[in-house]
Amino acid sequence: MKLHITCQYMENYGAHDWDGEGECPQHWKFKGGEDFFVALDGFNPDHEFADKNLAMIVDSVRSEIEWNDVGSRQHIVGYDVVADDFLTDFEQSQLDYDGAIVYPARVLELDVA
């Protein structure tokens, strides 16, 4: 089983013509988003603290996923536990149309030190 994290990417079209003076114009456009996986070896979804443990895992990888600057931003919109053979919509569409997954979702490693 693995954790599937979905994100929303946004681009600030107001920053394209900004000269860097004063406040950056705000014109945010939603542009899709990335998917990430985290292996959940030994995770028990029926454990009484499973939801809390998942939230802690997401928080531990948040800095690798999210950013916010004048030109673009990405933030986590949701997460769920999925089977090891689960494919994102983008991965499945690559298989359907191209016969192979050339751009897989990024797998994040947990720092358990």
The tally of structural domains comes to 1
Low-confidence stretches: none
- The overall pLDDT average reads 90
Question: What overall form do the CA principal axes indicate?
Answer: flat
The largest pleated sheet is described as: 6 strands, mixed
The assigned structural class equals alpha+beta
- What sequence of helices (H) and strands (E) makes up the elements? EEEHEEHE
Share of helix, binned: 10-25%
Portion in beta strands: 25-35%
**Count of distinct strands:** 6
CA-based gyration radius: 17 Å
N-to-C span: 22 Å
Q: Count up the helices.
A: 2
Features:
alpha+beta; 2 helices; single chain; 23% helix; 113 residues
Structural account:
This protein has one domain. Strands 1, 2, 3, 4, 5 and 6 form a 6-stranded mixed sheet that branches. It has 113 residues and is α+β, with helices and mostly antiparallel strands. The mean pLDDT is 90. It is flat.
Brief digest:
The chain is an alpha+beta fold and 113 residues long.
Write the layout of secondary structure elements.
Layout: E1 2-12, E2 28-30, E3 35-39, H1 50-65, E4 67-68, E5 72-82, H2 89-98, E6 106-108
